[in-house]
Amino acid sequence: MKGSVDTIAAEAALLPADQRLALAQRILSSVEPPGSVETEWDAEIRDRIGRYDAGGVKSVPAADALAEANRRLRR
After folding, report:
1. Helix (H) and strand (E) counts for the chain?
2. What is the pLDDT of residues 40-53, one digit of tens each?
3. In the list 15, 55, 72, 73, which could disulfide-bond 19, CB 3.0-4.6 Å?
4. CA distance 29 to 38
């Protein structure tokens, strides 16, 4: 491979932010195994929506959820 990791990183740092992000996503996706985290999150989201639609879970106002999260983080 031409160039070292440091050389490639230095050249990538010259790219605009959106292109650096696209490059980072390409590099990460090249090492993720099939059934990646993204695929698993998609399945989790579908499952949660299904449980909500079926009435298996109740919704909570965002302000209440954030207040509870802050309370737990302060323990």
Report:
1. 4, 0
2. 888 999 999 999 99
3. 15
4. 10
**Pairwise CA distance, residues 42 & 50, whole Å:** 12
Break the chain into its structural domains and give their ranges: 5-73
Cα–Cα dist 41/58, whole Å: 20
Q: Answer yes or no: pTM beyond 0.70.
A: no
Q: Across the chain, which distance is largest between two alpha carbons, in Å? A: 57
Which residues of the chain fall below pLDDT 70?
1-2, 35
Q: Is the dihedral of CA 10, 13, 14, 20 positive or negative?
A: positive
CA–CA gap between residue 40 and residue 33 (Å, rounded): 12
The Cα 16–Cα 6 span in angstroms is 18
Asked if residue 12 lies in contact with residue 23, where contact means CB atoms within 8 angstroms, the answer is: yes
